[in-house]
Please model this.
Amino acid sequence: MYQRDDLAYGYGAATAVLTLDAALPTTILIRFQRWRDRLGERATDLELVTDLGARIGSVEWLRGLATCAALCTGAWLLAPGFRPIAAAPQPGFTESHWDEARAIGIAPLAYGGDTGRRMGATDAVLPLGETPERPSVDLTATLGRGDGFTRVLERAGVAGVEAKQVAAMVAGAISVDEIKPGTRMNVVLGRRANRNEARPLDHLAFRARLDLKLAVERVDGRLRLQKVPIAVDDTPLRVQGIVGSSLYRSARTAGAPAAAVTDYLHALATKLNVGSDVASTDRFDIIIAHRRAETGEVEMGDLLFAGLTHGTRRTQLLRWAKDGRSQWFEASGVGESRGAMRMPVNGHLTSGFGMRMHPLLGYSRFHKGVDFGAAYGSPIVAATDGVVAFAGWHGGHGNYVKLNHSSGLATGYGHMSRIAVRPGVRVRQGQVIGYVGSTGLSTGPHLHYELYKNGQAINPNSVKFTMAPLLAGRELARFRGELTRLLAVRPGAALSPAPVMASAETLKKKG
Model:
């Protein structure tokens, strides 16, 4: 079975040879090693830990389930038991402990305690019958939007009868409606006889107007009103500059308020196309009503003057009130005549009234209006006073606005890019109602303008668009005097402190 040399072990020069009887244990050992190797190979192929989410129901899955169950069972069997730990019961509070805890609750450690121990209240301590009232209460009341003057005082704690008395005193000096929302009032309420009645008003002070401060004081038991006039400088604020890349941004950078710049653009739009007629090298001239009190407060008013210099051409518009209506007049004293139609857009006539070949439909069709060519986005204004009867999409007219006027007249404005009014709103002559566009059946930006008489379309060219001088005589002289005064204002003069100081000195001399 074995070669002799294979089973020989030499030690030096001696040689030992194994016999057959000695070789049997070695054979068993070799077989055991082979059996162990085969068992190891099978154990390697045996997968005890498997993914229980895959191959559900297979032999491998069942083997993995058995392994998981065996591990859980072993963990449960080997887990230690739970036995409660015995502890001594907490002793209850004694009477002295309760007194100490009650004292600590009334006077926390933050209020001077060092050790935390307090002495409980004894019979020597008597409960307070009532807390003493403060001799006076100082507070601030604010007049809200839509709020009443009397109601503000009542909310502050003034009795209703006394609040009405103060309101009547204030109304004798200034209309209560002139007091702007947000006005803050300093109120001081005095001592009252008992808790069942309101505190009396001892002092009231507030800024009624920019140039007037009112104070109500209680003197010898009676309320008296005191007027404190404040000197105010009325120098208008004049802003000039170059148009540059944007007229709006340039005017805002020069210091003109946003609302005034918006009014300025609307004023210019009544005379020219701001989008195309204004160049970057033009100069703007804006004059705004401006008031500054000697105490530092500033009040901005309406736009008074709108000017634009384009080379040798000048546009000068002055806001002037005539017949209770404020409108823009040119420097020559010319304005829109009341009741006469005005041009709805600054453009040129491109198509007349009557039969014509429709540019899109390709056949002759009655044209119920006239077309004015104008730049896209140019403002469209009401030809005269009226009420918006329709504002929205109107078929081939696109964005369309219809105005009803007196004496059975009506006007229509079509192909707008954007509508600026809504139905039911009353508009005035020259008010912007939309902007030139090319909506509906249109080949380019223009205004389709219609005129109706008792529901029948008539030729708009039959109505003469006039510009008549409305100012004459003394009114024209006053107009020119106001224009001269405004044009004499130096840019930035309203921001100088000198006029305010002079006004204050003048007021002191008058006093």
Notes: Residues 1-23, 109-115, 500-511 have pLDDT under 50 and may be disordered. The chain has four domains: 1-49, 137-229, 233-337+472-511, 348-466.
